[in-house]
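sorry to bug you again but im stuck and you know this stuff better than me. theres a chain ive been looking at and ive put its sequence and its fold in token form underneath. id like you to explain what the token line says about the fold, in plain words if possible. anything you notice is useful, everything is just below.
___
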Amino acid sequence: MTRFRLPAAISVAALITVLGGIPIAAQGGFWWLVLLVPAAVMIWAWQAGTDVNERGLRVRALLGARVVLWPQIAELRAQGPKRVVAVLTDGSAVTLTAVRPTDLPKLVAAAGQPLTTA
């Protein structure tokens, strides 16, 4: 299995923001809400990513995951310089979290599929 994850620097920056927000949250009242956004970003950056194996893809997000099997995928398409989308046979698309266009050969190799280009 090959895993694609977001850079750890995102989680570290969010953790530093949480720690910096503690004095504000300690003021009482609703100031503790200041910690929610950086805490959510930290968890998302730690959790999100794409796992690839011979059976298919598992795209992980903050609150869940979606499994897509290889027979359901019609094509893998680069969208801009930083995104890869799996176009499904039903016409819908799934953005592959943390996968860049330069990662496509590694993704296809992890799947055990031949690399074909259009």
Observations:
- The two ends are 26 Å apart (CA to CA).
- The mean pLDDT is 92.
- The longest helix spans residues 8-25.
- The longest strand covers residues 73-79.
